[in-house]
Amino acid sequence: MKEPKPMTSEKALEIRKRIKAKKPKFVRQESWRYKRLKENWRKPKGIDNKMRRKIKGWPPTVNTGYRGPKTVRGIHPSGYEEVIVYNVDDLKRVDSKTQAIKIAHTVGKKKRAQILTEAKKKRIVILNVKEIKEAKEAVKEEEEMAEEEKPEEAGEEAKLRERRPRKKKKSEGEQKGDDAA
């Protein structure tokens, strides 16, 4: 019996991509029928359950046939193994050839910047660096909006400070005349 040839990770990633494209969205049985049931997957267990019996016309159930190649399970689509980093010391454990980092969402701006500079020095791939660029752009936009609004607010405050002519109260005689009319 021949042993299968070991698959390259690039080819395995392509195969996984094809398999994932065909994979259906697995839904809980009759979640489309009842509002109280969410679509979160639950294994069908009843004795007469149509999904468990895989009856035609019912949604597909989860099974091993939808799994990707073993060599690339748990690997990022870029081909690197993901490692979550919380501080600069965590970068020492990362192999830049096979692993890429994701900076944890709990890390603040100051430490995040330190991690970024250190990772660039060591030539480590950062998978979620895009978020930082977007955040910087959002902060710049907010600052620009705030600068634009300040002069307008000052003008509005000046207008509010000006005394407006008050409406004169009608005398009792005028009010009675309005009611009669």
Describe this structure in words.
The structure is a single chain. The relative contact order is 0.08. Strands 1-2 form a two-stranded parallel sheet. The termini are far apart. It has two domains: 1-73, no CATH class; 78-151, no CATH class. By secondary structure, the protein is mainly alpha-helical. It has four helices and two strands. The protein is flat and about 110 Å long. It is 38% helix and 6% strand.
Chain-wise SSE layout:
Blueprint: H1 9-22, E1 81-85, E2 99-103, H2 109-121, H3 130-161, H4 172-180
Parallel strand pairs: 1-2
Features:
181 residues; mainly alpha; 2 domains; 4 helices; flat
Number of domain modules: 2
Give the rounded overall mean pLDDT.
83
Helical element count?
Answer: 4
| Secondary structure category | mainly alpha
Number of strands: 2
Shape field? flat
Percent helix range: 25-40%
- Major beta sheet, specifics? 2 strands, parallel
Q: SSE order, as H and E?
A: HEEHHH
**CA gyration radius, whole angstroms:** 32 Å
How far is it from the N-terminal to the C-terminal residue, by CA? 109 Å
User: Which segments are poorly predicted (pLDDT under 50) over 5 or more consecutive residues?
Assistant: none
> How large is the share of residues in beta strands?
5-15%
| Biggest sheet: strand arrangement | 1-2
